[in-house]
Amino acid sequence: MTTPLNHVKCPHCGKDVDDRAPACPQCGKKIYVNVPGDITPTKHPPIDSPE
User: From which domain of life does this come (predicted)?
Assistant: First the structure.
């Protein structure tokens, strides 16, 4: 079973593009997505490094 792809609109040409694609396959412009659909952002507390 495969996960359905999440799409975003290319800001340059408007084509639906997979949110994990680095660039639009139609026009070649870079695609910038803050958080791809299948990744959950997490925040971790800072790690104390020994000095």
Answer: Bacteria
